[in-house]
């Protein structure tokens, strides 16, 4: 997508057209992305829109495509780094599309539902199989696209169907077996398809055991991860045959800092916002880590964090 700056007159026109689709309280203008991401960095987005239905979502995306306006879909911004210059275009935030419905052992969840909310609903209905995801700070849509996983579980293990919107705007339902799930990968990510909702197949279980498992996994997460600092979770994908955090630690980078961004002293696989970091601080630190690990171990570290937007004017 072309990310050229929109002229002021175009911004006025786009705002008017967006307000023909959504209410005024579903639209933000020039909102700082640091307020919408767990990394707490990022400049302003021209627009952020919060569709409440698949019809509104479809209309917003159709508008963006017809007007050649860049757009980006996000949930709660837990895996997102936005550059300091912000995003020229429309951020489509799905968090208002968050309905979770249980039918027996099946759970239907819209893309914007948080994984925590789904885990809570599963527990309330005495359903097991979602405990692994209960502490992941993301949404169902992002988790499906990235095949999120933790503690031996992955979304591919429980997803039976995914409702998608194709790049040409058609709605389709895809069987879980046809989603091409892999490590942090899916057909939806490969093809640029938008997740509308998912169906999960869980198992009946003892609520006390389910609750205990969730508490255990969440405690393990708190013990091992720097949850008291803003971050986007694991910064790098796991390289084949290695663990990113150990490579970074063995390279002597634990605690290494660039500006306000730091390699977590608690877990070297996390870059944290330790002290009012800029996106440029984070990106420079990520680059330092990649170069150092490559030089010492010959391993290429691929970021798991998604980076969008443009640099600030004084960084160009």
Helix percentage: 25-40%
Q: Return Rg in Å.
A: 20 Å
Shape: globular
The number of E-state strands comes to 18
Strand order of the largest sheet: 6-7-13-11-12
Q: Give the strand content.
A: 15-25%
What's the average pLDDT? 94
CA distance, first residue to last residue: 20 Å
Number of continuous helical runs:
8
Structural class by helix and strand composition: alpha+beta
- List unreliable stretches of 5+ residues: none
> Major beta sheet, specifics?
5 strands, antiparallel
Order of secondary-structure elements: HEEHEEEEEHEHEEEEHEEHHEEEHE
Assembly state (oligomeric): single chain
Write structural notes for this entry.
The structure is a single chain. With about 325 residues, this protein is an alpha+beta fold. Helices cover about 30% and strands about 25% of the residues. The protein contains 8 helices and 18 strands. It has helices spanning about 10-20, 55-65, 115-125, 140-145, 185-190, 205-225, 245-250, 280-295, and strands spanning about 25-30, 45-50, 70-75, 80, 85-95, 100-105, 105-110, 125-130, 150, 155, 160-165, 170-175, 195-200, 205, 255-260, 260-265, 270-275, 305-310. It is globular. It starts with 7 loop residues before the first helix and ends in an 8-residue tail after the last strand.
């Amino acid at each position: 997508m072309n990310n050229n700056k929109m002229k002021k007159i175009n911004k006025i026109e786009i705002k008017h057209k967006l307000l023909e689709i959504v209410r005024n309280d579903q639209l933000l203008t020039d909102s700082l992305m640091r307020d919408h991401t767990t990394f707490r960095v990022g400049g302003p987005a021209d627009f952020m829109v919060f569709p409440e239905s698949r019809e509104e979502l479809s209309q917003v995306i159709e508008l963006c495509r017809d007007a050649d306006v860049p757009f980006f879909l996000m949930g709660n911004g837990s895996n997102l780094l936005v550059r300091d210059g912000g995003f020229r275009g429309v951020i489509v935030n799905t968090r208002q599309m968050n309905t979770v419905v249980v039918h027996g052992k099946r759970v239907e969840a819209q893309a914007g539902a948080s994984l925590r909310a789904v885990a809570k609903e599963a527990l309330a209905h005495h359903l097991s199989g979602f405990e692994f995801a209960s502490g992941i700070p993301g949404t169902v849509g992002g988790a499906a696209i990235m095949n999120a996983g933790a503690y031996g579980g992955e979304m591919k293990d429980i997803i039976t169907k995914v409702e998608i919107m194709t790049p040409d705007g058609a709605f389709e339902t895809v069987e879980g077996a046809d989603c091409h799930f892999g490590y942090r990968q899916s057909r939806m990510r490969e093809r640029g398809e938008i997740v509308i909702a998912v169906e999960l197949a869980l198992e009946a279980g003892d609520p006390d055991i389910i609750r205990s498992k969730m508490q255990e996994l969440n405690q393990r997460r708190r013990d091992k991860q720097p949850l008291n600092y803003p971050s986007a979770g694991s910064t790098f994908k796991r390289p084949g045959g290695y663990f990113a955090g150990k490579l970074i630690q063995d390279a002597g980078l634990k605690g290494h800092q660039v500006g306000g961004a730091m390699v977590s002293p608690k877990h070297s696989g996390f870059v944290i916002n330790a002290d009012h970091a800029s996106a440029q601080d984070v990106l420079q630190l990520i680059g330092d880590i990649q170069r150092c690990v490559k030089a010492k171990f010959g391993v290429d570290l691929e970021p798991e964090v998604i980076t969008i937007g443009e640099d600030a004017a004084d960084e160009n």
